[in-house]
Specification:
The protein has 463 residues and is α+β, with helices and mostly antiparallel strands. It has helices at residues 4-47, 50-62, 74-84, 110-113, 142-153, 161-188, 205-233, 238-248, 282-289, 344-356, 363-389, 413-429, 431-455, and strands at 89-96, 103-108, 118-123, 130-136, 295-299, 308-313, 323-326, 333-337. The protein contains 13 helices and eight strands. The chain crosses the membrane at residues 27-49, 166-184, 216-234, 367-387, 408-429, 435-454.
Length: 463
Amino acid sequence: MPASEPAAAVRAVVPLSRWAVLRRLHFYAGIFIGPFLFIAALTGLAYTLTPQLDRIAYGHELYVDQITESKVPLADQVDAARAAHPTGTLTTVSVLDDPHATTRIAFSTPELAADEKVDTVYVDPYTGQVRGTLTTWYGSTPTTTWLDSFHRTLNLGDLGRNYSELAASWLWVVALGGVVLWLGRKRKYRGERGRALVPDLQAKGVRRTRGWHASVGLWITAGLLVLSATGLTWSQHAGAHFSTVLDAMKGHAPALDAGLTSGHHGTGTAPTGEGLPAGVSLEQVIRAAGPMSGRTDITVPADASTAYVVAQDDGVWPVGFDQVAVDPRSGEVTERVEYADWPFLAKLTKIGIRAHMGELFGIVNQVLLAALALGLLCVIVWGYRMWWQRRPRRATARLGAPPARGGWRALPVWFLAIAVPVTIAVGWALPLLGLSLLAFVVFDLLAGAFRWALRTPGPRPVD
């Protein structure tokens, strides 16, 4: 054998070992993380329908029957809401730029405050009549709140948040890993290069299933990466690390100072929580803040040293999240924070979250999210079907075996020197990914040791 042949053989083995490691990782992630991804996709699909569900379930509270030329003053609407809800502290008055929408007036109670919820009274702005009361969470109706919590936590509290974070942590790994494996396979078989984006409808059995699994996965990869990244930004563990990075890069949205200086203190009656403070009307407060699209939330001053906070909440492109502090006595603007002045990372985070929630592009955003969820559900089912189809045809092995192990042994030192620190860094940034990956490695080593022990012959009997 020529001297160059062993070197060539080694060079051929190294790429194969990388593929083997990637296939085994993709296999383990699909088998063990697949159920979490399936639940996240299924609950996310349900959440995309919340605007329509709200209109069906709470149309009477959310919308008026008839639009007229004039509206009842906001102070009178607050009085009507207080009469219908005599307990609790008045916190927020919300008006929408939709002429069909009711005014939402929120009252906080100690029982609800622990869950960050309020009682919201819905008032017809044209008649001043109360149309109903709902317990809401950051403006969300009970149905939307329940589906949101089910998607994030399975309604299990902080413990349940680990499921969605685990799914989001692995989503980008399995998506990118699958793309690399599929494109690598198409590159290997030159005649199939043009079929990467479409399944081979002539194929049978596992090849047909793999074609659908990979082709649909390729189409939805970009969307899955967005969902993974945006989902992790407000997760429990990875989200805390992300917030630390934003602190270091000064990427948080600037906070509005609603405190009144001595020069702005008046002599009017201090707020009591029963109603509005003495001074300018809410209409004057809104005019002082300037025109705002979407929903405008007016936070009532908690005491005599606090201003009204007028906050824009418009999650539809082009978005707007301006905030303005207005003196309740004089109607002067004491501070303004405009969305246009936010740091780039803060803007990107806000836009990403609203896209994840299906708001950014309205009904188009909902349809795209629903398509992504359905696509992911199908890809997961096809993945498990491949596992079943690859099972050996004998009674002793009812499930498909994982790809061959031991590929990492052929990896070059320089590759491991890069891969190991990068993996540790990613594991620190995404703790649940790091811990579950470590669990996979331990499981794989134990499984290998167990199989080796079964295959090792025992000592021969002594004659």
